[in-house]
Amino acid sequence: MKALILAAGKGTRLAPLTNNIPKCMVKYKNKPIIDYELEALRESGIDDIAIVGGYLANVLKEYTKINKLYINHDFENTNMVWTMFCAREFMESCVNEEQDLIISYSDIIYKNEVVSKLKQYKNDLGVVIDKDWKILWDSRFENVLSDAESLKIKDNKIIEIGKKVDSIDEIEGQYIGLFKVSYKFIKNMINIYDNINRNKQFDGKNFQNMYMTSFLQEIINKFNNIEPIFINRGWIEIDSISDLETEL
């Protein structure tokens, strides 16, 4: 099994902490966010790890000593999906070597137990979903609906993800930015990306700025095979300076 960490973003909302380091190197309880991720993956037996950098990628490479560092040179004008496919070569290597792939955002911290649960998943594409998400959102936002996104499930398949919501009833859990795709399905995921309508709007964003949830929705619409991997907390997101006070 391999892992890919998407770490191209600038982390503007964490300024001035990100003036001289990328977002994933900001310290949470005196340790960089990226260290928590690398440790959780490695302690779960995943050592073949690649990172996609962008903002201050040279600083990230020097710090992590990761050999497989891909770069999104256009990080200021693109989003997560574009960043992920900057590591297309790494994704294709998973197919060739028959290695499943865990894909992780770089601004989340998760316990080893979350990775272990993800490793146990054996089907095409499993997305980590926090059932107790509201506890975390209540500590971060005055109005949880201002940031929370839709998550609808039917017959243990996710049928909707990442839409703006008017009611908490539209949220059966919250996507945390961590998922696993089998090596058998990676080729299908690449094909969807290659054949997607690049002139279309995706949840209000153009192709280059497509959210990961919008891309997952495209997969859902075609294959209806994305499944939730439920957790009850055990993770946090670091998106603002106030998030640094959140308890894991």
Q: What can you tell me about this protein's structure?
A:
There is one protein chain. With 248 residues, the chain is an alpha/beta fold. It has a single domain, classed as Spore Coat Polysaccharide Biosynthesis Protein SpsA, Chain A, CATH 3.90.550. The protein has eight helices and 13 strands. The strands form four sheets. It has a seven-stranded mixed β-sheet. Strand 4, helix 2 (57-64) and strand 5 form a beta-alpha-beta unit.
Order of helices and strands: EEEHEHEHHEEHEHEEEHHEE
What is the quaternary state of this protein? single chain
The value of Rg in angstroms is 17 Å
Tally of distinct domains? 1
* Main sheet: strands, sense, barrel: 7 strands, mixed
CATH-level-2 architecture: Alpha-Beta Complex
Distance between the termini: 26 Å
By DSSP (H or I, 4+ residues per run), the number of helices equals: 8
Structural class designation: alpha/beta
Averaged pLDDT, please? 96
Task: For this entry, give a set of tags.
248 residues; alpha/beta; Spore Coat Polysaccharide Biosynthesis Protein SpsA, Chain A; 7-stranded mixed beta sheet; two-stranded antiparallel sheet; 8 helices; 13 strands; 24% strand
Secondary-structure blueprint of this entry?
Elements: E1 2-7, E2 27-28, E3 31-32, H1 33-43, E4 48-53, H2 57-64, E5 69-71, H3 80-85, H4 88-97, E6 101-105, E7 108-110, H5 112-120, E8 125-130, H6 133-140, E9 151-154, E10 157-161, E11 174-181, H7 183-195, H8 212-223, E12 226-231, E13 235-237
Parallel strand pairs: 1-4, 1-6, 4-5, 8-12
Antiparallel strand pairs: 2-3, 6-11, 7-13, 8-11, 9-10
Helix pairs in contact: 4-7
